[in-house]
Design a protein that fits this description.
alpha+beta, two-stranded antiparallel sheet, extended, DNA recombination, transposable element, Transposase_mutator, DNA-binding
C-alpha cells in the first residue's frame, strides 16, 4: 500500500467517523435515545434474542410491513371509512427471520383477499440479505458449513440449518471453483515491503503514514 493509498483510507475512515458522530450527536440531542439509555443503565441487554437491538429491528420491520399494507389497501389502519374499500386487514401471521443480530420474530400483516405481497420481507424469505453476505464471506475465508453454522449461533444467535447454509454457499461455489482452477502464469514477481507506521501532523489533523524501511523482490 502506497502513502497515497494510506492517506485515502484515512480520509475515508475519517469521513465515516464524522458522519456517524454527527448522527449520534443529533440522536442524543433530540432525546430519542433517552429511554433506551435508561433501560440499558437499568440492566437490559442490548444484544441477544431479548436484547434492545433485536426489538428495534422487529419494530422497524413490522412498521415497514404495515406501511406496505396501507399502501396496498389504500387506507390507514383505523380509518372510519375502511368499510368503503374492497379489501381489508385480516390480522397477521408469525414469521421468524434470521438477521445479522439474531433471529427476529415478526408479525406479518395479512389482507382478507390474500393479494398483499410484501417487499421488505418477501414471502418465503427467511433471512435478510446482509446475513447471506456474511455466510459467503465466511465460506470464502475457508470456513466449513459446520463452522459457519456454529459461528453464527454463538456470535449473533442465529440458528441456521446445514441445508440453508449449503444453499447459500452453492450459489457461489461454481465461481469459487473456477477461481481455484484458473490457469496460472509461469512467473509471479512478489515484492515484500517492510515499513513502520508513524503519526504525522498534517495541518489540523494527525494521520498515520507508512515509511518504508526495506524492500525485497522475489520471483515465484
Amino acid at each position: 500500500m502506497t502513502v497515497q493509498d494510506d492517506e485515502a483510507v484515512d480520509q475515508t475512515r475519517q469521513q465515516r467517523r464524522d458522519r456517524q458522530n454527527e448522527l449520534a450527536d443529533r440522536l442524543a440531542a433530540s432525546g430519542a435515545l433517552d429511554e433506551i439509555f435508561t433501560r440499558i443503565d437499568a440492566g437490559e441487554a442490548l444484544t441477544g434474542e431479548t436484547g434492545l437491538l433485536n426489538a428495534m429491528m422487529k419494530s422497524a420491520l413490522e412498521r415497514g410491513l404495515n406501511a406496505e399494507l396501507t399502501g396496498h389497501l389504500g387506507y390507514e389502519a383505523g380509518d372510519p371509512d375502511a368499510s368503503a374499500f374492497p379489501n381489508s386487514r385480516n390480522g397477521s401471521h408469525a414469521k421468524t427471520v434470521a438477521t445479522e443480530i439474531g433471529d427476529v420474530e415478526l408479525r406479518v400483516p395479512r389482507d382478507r383477499d390474500g393479494t398483499f405481497t410484501p417487499m421488505l420481507v418477501r414471502k418465503g424469505q427467511r433471512r435478510l440479505d446482509g446475513l447471506d453476505a456474511r455466510i459467503i464471506s465466511l465460506y470464502a475465508g475457508g470456513m466449513t458449513i459446520r463452522d459457519i453454522q456454529h459461528h453464527l449461533a454463538t456470535t449473533v444467535g442465529t440458528e441456521l440449518s446445514h441445508e440453508t447454509i449449503s444453499k447459500v454457499t452453492e450459489e457461489v461455489a461454481d465461481e469459487v471453483a473456477r477461481w481455484q482452477q484458473r490457469p496460472l502464469d509461469s512467473l509471479y514477481p512478489v515484492i515484500y515491503l517492510d515499513a513502520i507506521i508513524v503519526k504525522v501532523r498534517d495541518g489540523a489533523h494527525v494521520r498515520n503514514k507508512a515509511r518504508a524501511t526495506s524492500k525485497s523482490v522475489f520471483r515465484w
